[in-house]
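Hi all, a correction to my earlier message: I attached the wrong file for Putative transcriptional regulator. Here's the right sequence:
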Amino acid sequence: MRKMATKHEQILSHIKNLEIGYKISVRQIAKALQVSEGTAYRAIKDAETQGYVSTIERVGTIRIEKKHKGNIEKLTYAEVVNIVDGQVLGGREGLHKTLNRFVIGAMKLEAMMRYVDAGGLLIVGNRDKAHEYGLQAGAAVLITGGFDTRDEVKKLADELRLPVISTSYDTFTVAAMINRAIYDQLIKKEILLISDILIPTSETSFLYNDVQVRDWHDMNRQTTHSRYPVVDRDMKVQGMVTAKDIIGIDRSLPIEKVMTKNPMVVNPTTSVAAAAHMMIWEGIECLPVIDSQNKLLGIITRQDVLKAMQMIQRQPQVGETIDDRITAQLTDSSTPDQALFRFDVTPQMTNYLGTLSYGILTSVLTTVGRRVLNEQKKGDLVVENVTLYFLRPIQIDASIDIKPKILEVTRRNGKLDIEVYHNGAIVGKAFLIAQFIDRY
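and the right structure:
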């Protein structure tokens, strides 16, 4: 018999079924579904994490269209309000809509309107006529400099359900902030998440915690798999059971007696890289994927994770990360006798004292270590440990020489000793250990 959904699940389902653009409040949800305000608040926050609602200061929480990875770089007007710390002057019912592009209105009105399209965002200063024309063209309006607009414009915005937003920032700063947000979204788009590769429960074999060891044998014959998540009748993960757990065990024993309790799990927003590290270090072949209520959503296998990582390494990157910036500053000056890399310290890579940041130097040496070890042994590797010693501070705009020396390379591991020089004097040392990943 199927059990009823929990209050939390009922609220989430209720929120997902609301019309896009609907305004939500804790008190309203609590009253409609007869739950406590605390329960309603937690469910709304969960819905926000899942991307079904967005909370805006001085406006409230609204139902928005959940983004998929294909359009994650597109922003909603609600997100723009939060990015620019804006105030909504009118057209609140359109905050859930997605903007296609933005136009800076720094030209004559006639010329400006040639570039304003429906679904866009017109960024402009204290120009009432431009505000009105932008709305009539089907675009939302972002007024910079903290200016207001006429009541007629606000009324038009409400009628057209197109937001008019005011921000205290200037036009250049606002454009930079929105560009930065889109850029960050592009980087996120390139990061492979567990949700991209998980095998859902509809295709996953699992065992209930109230069955016996003989049921493992029956499922093993049917599926030929040897590892299964163990769940209760509410689909909450209780453990994992593998062939190793049931070898020589009485078939009438309950699965609960032989399973591994409190297994390692991941959620859909965990990165595939993080899951790979977890599985490699712990020697795990299969991980349950759970939701916020500890319910089974599916599984991932070590083989699928490693295949996905190898695939993503062959994809072109769109957004530039800190590691990409570091790589751009690193020059390979190696000779047949000596591995040598040169790195220039830019202002962005320093700490508040104006010297090279500890974290940046660690990333630089990790990158060098990967390159050197990949010359010796092709394939994937993960850096297991970096021990770094700063002997002298490295100043801003310095050019440093990095000399890695291989101490040992085996089938499983690589060990490096790395020395860092500035103007011929040693300024840092590091010891790095990496583990090679077998390709499937």
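Sorry for the mix-up. The longest helix spans residues 171-190.
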